[in-house]
Amino acid sequence: MSGLALYNAWFSYGDQVVLRGATLNLKQGESVVVAGANASGKSTLLHLCAGLLPIKKGSLRLGGSVADGLHPGELFRRGVRCGVVFQEGGLLSNMNALANVALALNYHSDTLGLSQSDVEERARLALIRVRIPEAQFYTLPAHLSFGVRKRLAFARAIAIEPNFFFFDDPDVGLDPATAALVHEILCQYRDDPKVTMVVGTNRDLLIERLGVRGMYLRNGELHEQTEGAHSIR
Amino acid sequence: MQPRFTLFPQRPISERPSWVTRIGAETVSNWWFFKRLFATLARAAAAGFEPGASAAAVSRRVTVRQIFFTGFEALPLVSVMALLVGATIIIQAQLVSPLPGEVLGKVLVAVVLREVAPLTTALVVAGRSGTAMATELGNMKVNDEVLALVSLGINPYRFIVLPRLIGTVVSVLVLTVYFGALAIIGGYLANALIGGPSFPAMRAGFTEALVPLDLPLFVLKGTGLGVIVGWLCCHFGLEVGASPTEVPQRASQAVVFGMLACVVLNTAVTLAFYWIAGPPIH
Q1: I need a labelling partner for A86 at 20 to 30 A (CA). Which of A23, A200, B26, B183 fits?
Q2: Is B150 on the interface with A (CB under 8 A)?
Q3: B155 Cβ neighbours under 8 A, 6+ residues apart
């Protein structure tokens, strides 16, 4: 499977242009960190790369398939699995932790070839991997702490065994132990040759720990980071 | 002179667009509104034909839950309303002038079954479940839940909109039949209470007034009103942008537009029925 190819992408919210001709090419298994000041468009770029937003001008290909955000199921059936960890989690508020993780597995169980027991087992394993205690499996996201919600969002993304991973400020607001766990997971995916990863962050510790190709956003333009990781902002 | 600073400061007049620009912008905005409105319905309909057996099974389960919330849980409210509305109509008809039983039976068919039952049911569903749907979907938009679904390869039109649309249509149809039946019982009871004409006379008028065209009229009204409530409430919910303050605004718009559209559709179908079937209808 080929990687991510974003070409000359323009995006705006009304009159406010957020991205101006952003181009990003990643081979399968390659990772990149995107930095930039607040409101520079990091989240928008990540959503665009994941095919969640319609590009006003330009194109996006994930694993060789055109991604326009209009036919998400079709992309999944072609083998493009996007794991997106949103800044605020994006968890379904009317579903408990286990149901949140199992939803996509249930929805795509025929494509993934999973039985009901497989779905449950995989969802439980994903929750255990991010160290969510079993007592909280049946709790609604609103009753979970911020750190647990963030880990739950990780578990949901991990469960579908993605080949594209997008992280939006993955360790913001987490205590050192949870942040270390998140860094560990990110490093595992960085080293996975099947996973293409884009991380949006300004955290020096994470940037240094990942030690991958760096890019930064300024005035809606995406630039290659050529100096040290610290000069990107 | 420096403009006075107020609690809600606005852009200086010199920077505001002219009225010509504003009219133009409003026209374009309305065009886009209707385009998006119909796109929501088209996407929900298309989502029903997407492949994926497990996705269809998940969607069916959500639909059943929706029917439970919209239809089953509304039964107590609809029961009370139907009994009282049926009774009120018969009491009012008798107040105008004492009518023979046959006429009262016909009034029950013409007023209660053909008009009040479908319209009131749709308004109850719009007010009770429509607000909840629009608010729920609006909050889902604000909290990135809809984007999260797309990221997981889940079509929100198949997982969110279509089940709510089908759930609303089924609920409105079934509740309309239920409302009609209870309103007639309410009418008969009120008639007995005020010492009106005999029950067999009313039943004779009732059976005489019913025509074969009533069945398609009933189904058309129930289905059409259900589609309108489900469609508009889902659409306005999904129209919410990033701000939580938009949620109550959109929910209110959904219900207001939904109720207005229901009244318009009900009148249009009644007019069509008038032209096709009568008068007099038998």
Answers
A1: A23
A2: yes
A3: A71, A72, A73, B47, B50, B55, B149
- Which chain A residues contact residue B153 at CB under 8 A? 72-73, 75-77, 81-82, 104, 107-108, 160
Q: Which two tokens stand for residue B22?
A: 């504003």
Contact status, residue A16 vs residue A35, Cβ threshold 8 Å: no
Nearest of A84, A116, A82, A85 to residue A102 by alpha carbon: A116
Instruction: Say if CB A41 and CB A19 are below 8 A apart.
Output: yes
Short-list A43, A47, A40, A33, CA closest to A17:
A40
Residue recorded with tokens 């494509």: A111
- Cβ-defined contact of B153 to A108 (cutoff 8 Å): yes
Say if residues B108 and B90 touch (Cβ distance below 8 Å): yes
Give the span between the Cα atoms of B8 and A220, in whole angstroms.
Answer: 31
Q: What is the dihedral of CA B169, B252, A70, B225, to 10 degrees?
A: 20
The complex's ipTM? 0.91
Residue B34 Cα, gap to closest chain A Cα (Å): 18
pLDDT digits (tens, 9 = 90+) for A141-198: 999 999 899 999 999 999 999 999 999 988 888 889 889 999 999 999 999 999 999 9
Check if B50 contacts A (Cβ < 8 Å): yes
Determine contact, residues A55/A9, Cβ cutoff 8 Å.
yes
Measure B151 CA to nearest chain A CA, in Å.
6
Nearest CA in chain A to B242: A13
Residue with tokens 């039949």: B177
Residue B156 near residue B40, CB atoms below 8 Å: no
Strands of the sheet containing A57-62, edge to edge, are A16-26, A4-13, A57-62, A65-66
Angle between helices B162-193 and B19-47 (to 10 degrees): 90
